[in-house]
Amino acid sequence: MNIELKEISTFFETEYPLNKDGLRKLLSLFKVENIKKGTHILNAGTEEKHLRFLNKGVIREYYATSDKETNINFYTKPQFITDLYSFNADSKTKKQQETLSDTQLLSINKSAFRELLKEYDCGKSFIDLSFRQLLKQKELFEYNRITKTAEELYNELFIYRPNWLDKIPQYHIASYLNITPETLSRIRKRSS
């Protein structure tokens, strides 16, 4: 098996088991993309046209207005990074995504993916499970943002997402926590 497809193959075998023929065909459709640090890979106001899997690297996802950017997620391990709502609904995204390191993505064109779903009838469970996970994550994120202090949120990152604290610049972490970098610095001092 192609080394670039090892992570995504493992992902499907453990998270979304598909029949062997369907999986083999799906993997054959993915294209490898090597992307430089600082590249925007998704822009607000555009439609998500590819199912994208992060193979290596770090990506930030954020909302932007004319005067502010607010980080909403970071991707640091092999996983799908597609705006599934935009992808599935054929609608424009409100999100932006930028590479924070040199990155390797695997991508498949939306039309090719939909053809595969028709041919193997194996993707409905993938889409359904992905949406359920996305909604669960969004609900937890919103609940935590409303009910917890920035310090509590930082401590959760320290416990549940320590790789974020190692791989992501602190000013991006501060934006994610909706605090200033100076406040984050004070929280970090108290927590150490």
UniProtKB/TrEMBL annotation:
SUPFAM superfamilies: cAMP-binding domain-like. Residues 18-117 form the Cyclic nucleotide-binding domain. InterPro entries: cNMP-bd_dom, cNMP-bd_dom_sf, RmlC-like_jellyroll. It holds the Pfam family cNMP_binding. Coiled coil: none annotated. It comes from the Bacteria. This is Cyclic nucleotide-binding domain-containing protein. It comes from Polaribacter sejongensis. The lineage of its organism: Bacteria, Pseudomonadati, Bacteroidota, Flavobacteriia, Flavobacteriales.
